[in-house]
Amino acid sequence: MSEAELISLVNAKTLEDRLIEMVRARGVAFKPSAALDEGLRKLKLTRLLATLTEPGTLEVTVNVPGADVLVDGEKRGAAGPDGRALVSDVAPGEHSLDVRAESYVEASQKFLLKPGETRRLEVTLRAAVSLTPGPLGSRISVQAGTPADAALAGLEFARSGGQRIEMLKKLVADFGENPLALLGYGMLQETYLEEQQYDESLAAGEEVLKRDPKSFTTRVRQAHAYLGKGEAENALKAADQARTLLDAAATAVPPMGADAEAWQREKQQALEAAQNEWNGLSYSAYVGLSQVADPGEKRALLEHYLHIFPQSAYRPGALVVLAVAAQQQGDAEAMRRYADEGLAANPDSPILLMLVSDVLSERGQELARARQLAAHLLELVKSSPGKVRPEGLSDEQWAQVSQLWEGTAHSVLGQVLMYEETAQGVAGMNKTRQAVEEFKAASPLLKSNPYSYARNLYRLGYAYAKLGLRPQAREALTEVMSLDTPYRQVAGPLLEKVK
Q1: What is the 8-class DSSP label of residue 160?
Q2: pLDDT at site 324
């Protein structure tokens, strides 16, 4: 009721009891002026005047014990242990209520208090920083306009990684056990990783895991940090822990009481984001482990890698590296096993085509397959170079690599023909003559690789000797003897026989 309405009702000679009843029912939106006060007294409406100024009581229930309660900007009390605050002697009329608590967003509202009324209000404060458990780690939300929000906003002005680190160290110290400290440690872990301060990144990651052991992102970053330090085994251990979290999340069901549809949407989004992180770790681990120098250690690490990343896009590449490592160890059976698995995944792998066809032709085994693989390698190099050219090679490097592949393929085809030769007399040795042409085609292509070049020359010299072409055999075998390769040991006795 406005003051004008009240004056109109008084002038209409409305009974005082009726006026009091109306004031109590509707409340008043004004404080009696001096003129109204004087007029009501002259009319002997003192009970009405008393009603207009009769104070009321405000009872506030808040979800945070100890929260401060302010009426019209003035602190009038604090919520007790039960969350209740009683504010008495509040003048009737319109007021503002503010409720404040540390680490919570302030809540404000308007209310109307009728004369003599006890008004009950419930207030729910939102945490300035909230933590919500998720399928792959906790989600942290920061409310705008809070000190926590201001602390995070300040990080945008960091001019360097070092300055950002110092600001984050202050943040985690200032917020202690607040969930914002968890967010701060995660950001510290990431920043230290970017700055290649791997030990510090690992330490920050451990702080995150103390508070949030299901954090998939933290486990992935720990693996990256270990890779940066060159600690391959620890990197794979961290990656395996991340994989366990990923597998568990994929089959997780909504918690009791959760909105199943909303939870499934959140889970799907988390899994999609995690898959991108997982793919990045898969690549980094593949590159890092492939650079291990010792072939035996490399094999053990990459075998573990394939167990952890069974669906990795880099699996074919890892199998290539494994096959080469096994070859370096002289383990032909393991090389064949890795290479066959690799060719099943990528039939166009030039290195595996070369390795398998070379081993088969050298041993005289599966000659038809050796021919097919070598022919396919030649076709790829000549007809589809863009399909097999490794990324990052200069034109000069690519020329050298492609020549080695092409030369090896020709040498393999020649060796297959030598094994297939069945004629007893020189006149009938057509396969050997064909082999000579393959060996001759291979020689200039293999000169950049002394071992392969010497082996091909030995094969050529042997074929010439078999055909009775002794001058040509002497020339080829003599050149083998001039090269510092293991083939000098077999070329020497044959050269003596030819002489």
Answers
A1: S
A2: 93
DSSP state of 427: G
Mean pLDDT of 317-328: 94
> What's the whole-model pTM score?
0.75
Cβ atoms of 317 and 286 within 8 Å: the answer is yes
Q: Which candidate, 346, 273, 279, 347, places its Cα nearest to that of 312?
A: 279
Beta strands, E only, 15-124: 56-62, 68-71, 74-78, 84-90, 93-100, 104-105, 107-113, 118-123
3-state SS, residue 118: strand
Q: What are phi and psi of 131, to 5 degrees?
A: -120, 125
Which residue's structure tokens are 């890698």?
305
How would you label 134-149 residue by residue, b for 16+ Cβ within 10 Å and e otherwise? Answer: bbbbbebebeeebebb
Structural contact between residues 104 and 87, judged by C-beta atoms closer than 8 angstroms: no
Residues near 411 by Cβ (< 8 Å), separated by ≥ 6?
A: 358, 438, 439, 442, 446, 452, 455, 456, 459
Distance, in Å, from the CA atom of 235 to the CA atom of 210, rounded to the nearest integer, reads 19
Alpha helices for 161-259 (secondary structure H)? 161-175, 179-194, 198-211, 216-229, 232-250
pLDDT tens figures, 134-176: 889 998 988 888 888 888 888 988 889 999 999 999 999 998 8
Looking up tokens 């064949």 gives 336
Percentage with pLDDT > 70 across the chain: 100
- Calculate mean pLDDT across residues 353-369: 94
* Amino acid identity for residue 67 in this structure: A
The pLDDT of residue 299 is above 90: yes
Q: How far apart are CA 119 and CA 336, in angstroms?
A: 85
**Cα gap 340→321, rounded to integer Å:** 13
Return the SS3 of 384. coil
Please tell me the chain's helix, strand, coil percentages from 3-state DSSP, rounded to the nearest 5: 65, 10, 25
Domains of the chain: residue spans and CATH: 3-52 (no CATH), 56-127 (2.60.40.1120), 130-255+269-289 (1.25.40.10), 349-498 (1.25.40.10)
Half-sphere exposure of 249 (CA within 13 A, CB side): 28
Tally the C-alpha atoms within 13 A of residue 167's C-alpha that lie toward its C-beta.
17
pLDDT at position 147: 84
> What are the backbone angles phi and psi of residue 394, rounded to the nearest 5°?
-75, 170
482-489 long-range CB contacts below 8 Å, 24 or more apart? 483/450, 483/453, 483/454, 483/457, 484/450, 485/450, 485/451, 485/454, 485/455, 486/451, 487/451, 487/454, 487/455, 487/457, 487/458, 488/454
How far is it, in rounded angstroms, from Cα 207 to Cα 215? 11
d(CA 382, CA 457): 23
What does the pLDDT average to over 94-122? 91
Burial of 396 (0-12, 13-18, 19+ CB in 10 A): exposed
